[in-house]
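User: Could you write out the 3D structure of this protein bound to NAP? I've included everything you need below.
Assistant: Certainly. Input first, then the structure.
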Amino acid sequence: MTMAILVIGATGKTGRPVVEALSARGAKVAAASRDPETGFAGSRTDGVLPVRFDWADRATWAPALEGAEALYIVGPYAHPTGERLVADLLAEAHDTRRVVLLSVIGAELLPEEAMMAHWERAVRASGKEWIILHPNWFFQNFGTGFLPALRDRGVLALPAGQAPVSFVDTRDIGEVAAAALTEDGYAGRILTITGPDALTHAEAVAMLGDVAERPLAYQAVDPEQAEADSRAAGAGERTVISQRGLFQVMRDGGNAPVTDVVQRVTGRAPRSFAQYAAEHAELWRELNAAE
Ligand SMILES: NC(=O)c1ccc[n+]([C@@H]2O[C@H](COP(=O)([O-])OP(=O)(O)OC[C@H]3O[C@@H](n4cnc5c(N)ncnc54)[C@H](OP(=O)(O)O)[C@@H]3O)[C@@H](O)[C@H]2O)c1
């Protein structure tokens, strides 16, 4: 039987691989975006229906939710009252019996401002089957949010200290999420999803530099300086507090554990950072050209 699944955040770093993994399983997918025409232009996959969904526009919720038996949620992390919206959405999700929520490794240690705890409580209290994903930081940050700093200065500056992080590929998160959305046996579980080994940011950046054939470096920034820089760049207080919590967890070693969740759920080893670096060689070589 084909199951209809709504993927919120479907144009994002985890959402796209979730859609692809569901599509490969033959699921019927509604892929949500604030701007579905642009968001999925040129990348339509069989069985995938682009739908409009905006956390900030409740009129878009019911049409997107209609017929969705399962739901993948990337929460409204940038919404000023985003902590309440996951509970509100679930109250409207009348056709939905299973929810997979994207949270983060160490969520239980984060301040309430980070919103994850609110969303986790909402899915647990929803009366639906729930699965909470606790992935580590993504490989794909290096090719997106971190890319301008690497390109322009050859330096990635973060308040991460020299902490080891078992970074993970979002394609592996997508495959784990697709299993949790479509197979029985995961309900009521928190899945901590990591890569195969823990690397420091310095080690990860050096590996990209090897592929780029350009020296790339990591610089440990003082946490207070990082907060001042974020405020100066226009970040709101809530974002600053959330980031403080995330990096504190990291410096305390909370992102170092390696789990076997990808192996157990997908039947194969998680992708390595070296593999990710090699697969995106053209992207890193462009960094060299931009020097
Ligand atoms: N980055 C990491 O390393 C990491 C690690 C663990 C957990 N997380 C968690 O992952 C989540 C996503 O973070 P990310 O930075 O990686 O972002 P992302 O998933 O790459 O992109 C954000 C997604 O959210 C959608 N979106 C944004 N505002 C929206 C709105 N108002 N209504 C509906 N959809 C909206 C965007 O879709 P459209 O623009 O198409 O509407 C986009 O698909 C966060 O909760 C973060 O805490 C991130």
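Strands lie at 4-7, 28-33, 48-52, 70-73, 98-102, 129-135, 155-158, 189-193, 217-220.
User: Perfect, thank you.
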